[in-house]
Amino acid sequence: MHEPANVGIIGCGNISGHYLQSERVFGKYIRIAACADARMARARARAAEAAEKGWCKPRACRVSELLADPAIDIVINLTPPQAHFKVAMKALRAGKHVHNEKPLALTMLEARKILGEARARNLRVGCAPDTVLGAGAQTCRKLLDDGAIGAPVAGCAFMMCRGHESWHPDPEFYYKAGGGPMFDMGPYYLTSLVTLLGPVKRVSGAARITFPERTITSEPKKGTRIAVEIPTHLAGVLEFASGPVVTIVTSFDVWFHSMPNIELYGSAGSLSIPDPNGFGGAVRIRRAEGETKDWTDVPLTHGNAGGIRGFGPADMARAISAGRPHRASGELGMHVLEIMVGLHKAARSGRYYEIQNTVERPAPLPAGLKDGELD
Questions:
Q1: Of all helices (H) and strands (E), which one includes residue 208?
Q2: How far apart are CA 373 and CA 28, in angstroms?
């Protein structure tokens, strides 16, 4: 595959504007050549916006036209979660590498079919989030690998808010199958934890639906009522193969809180990890021994602290040309998916869920790279 790789975006909804900006940072590796949507007007609007703002110059087209274009190398699948499997399979059968927005799929059967199709066709599958490739998470990865807090022992992760119906223009899917706080925001936290600590071997959990009905207060669907079908508060325990035990809480039922995003506790200190939904943020450490007796800010050791999506597809393009594994892989996405599925199953059954699909920690990025550089 040539560089930069030609990328086509399918799904021109809320998140697509972030991906359309990726060429500005990762233009050495990817070029946004086309965008498509089931609603042609939306594809045209996104393409016009990207050109007007100087992000890139994609052509707007129908999904079938994008998939039939032999010049498109990688498809970024930004459709709603319920369509991730169908669109990914169509793209693979059209001979395209695929990078899915999170989650990879809604079920483990779908995930296995996606990865199986890719292997059969010698194609790559990637999966969001790629925020773990940013400066914040990679600085934390280096600290852990360097033994800055000793051996990791435990941790906690909290993603709690009131839900999305007050601001999102089309929030119903957050409360249907494939939605909820764990499937929506859990991938950021779980992908970060697996990148830092390695694979999970067993989970347990408890969950509830606090408000069976939600009312949209954002436009254009203000006043529409949503029947909630997925747990909106889930508390879980993750047991990692490397030993640490981490508590995670994801919720759409909390007005306010003061809990950390992620903290890890080691045999020689503690590490505060920035919001995994961002690429930068403050990294803080407190060691058991040393001159300081309080939390200390750690300078970021890596580039790419900005908020531009597309890191994962760019790394995939570079990995294909270099003959190495890409970091935001489909295998990592499937492992994270099974953790989320397992937490919900454990909550329903009241029993532990043993994770069946393991994964290797993705390779860290080298320290000292400039923004837009991958190796």
A1: strand 200-208
A2: 8
Q: What is the mean pLDDT of residues 161-169?
A: 94
For 258, half-sphere exposure in the C-beta direction (CA atoms, 13 angstrom radius) is 0
Per DSSP, the three-state class of 233 is strand
Q: 310 and 30 in contact (C-beta within 8 Å)?
A: yes
Summary mean pLDDT of the chain: 95
- How large a percentage of the chain has pLDDT more than 70? 99
**pLDDT of 105-152, one tens digit each?**
999 999 999 999 999 999 999 999 999 999 999 999 999 999 999 999
CA–CA dist 181, 102 (Å, integer): 13
Q: Give 173's DSSP letter.
A: G
Q: How far is CA 256 from CA 103, 159, 160, 185, 253, in A?
A: 26, 11, 8, 17, 9
Measured between alpha carbons, how far is 300 from 139 in angstroms, rounded to an integer? 6
Buried-exposed string 299-323: b where 16+ CB fall within 10 A, e elsewhere: ebbbbbbbebbbbbbbbbbbbbeee
pLDDT confidence of residue 304: 87
* Interior angle at CA 120, CA 115 and CA 123, nearest 5: 65
Domains along the chain with CATH numbers: 5-129+308-327 (3.40.50.720), 132-298 (3.30.360.10)
Type of residue at 273: I
Q: Tell me, what's the pLDDT at 129?
A: 96
Backbone phi, then psi, for 283, in 5-degree steps?
-105, 125
Question: Are 328 and 126 a contacting pair, CB within 8 Å?
Answer: yes
DSSP state of 139: H
Query: What is the spatial distance between Cα 164 and Cα 71, in angstroms, rounded to a whole number?
Result: 37
The one-letter amino acid at 154: A
Interatomic CA distance for residues 252 and 266, integer angstroms: 30
| Identity of the amino acid at 264 | L
Helix (H, G, I), strand (E, B) or coil at 76: strand
Query: Residues 81-99: what's their mean pLDDT?
Result: 97
